[in-house]
Amino acid sequence: MKLFGHPDSGHALKVKFFLDWLEIEYEYEIIDIFSEPSTRSNEFLNASKFSEVPTLIDGSKSYIQSNAILVYLSDKFGKFKNPDERQKCLEWLVWEANKIGLCLPQLRCHKKLAKSHPEFILSQDAYNWLSARYKHDVGVLDKELADKNFILGNDISPADFSLCAYLMYTDEADIDIPQNVESWLQRMREQKGWQSPYEMLKG
Ligand SMILES: N[C@@H](CCC(=O)N[C@@H](CS)C(=O)NCC(=O)O)C(=O)O
Question: Is pLDDT of 40 > 90?
Answer without folding.
Answer: yes
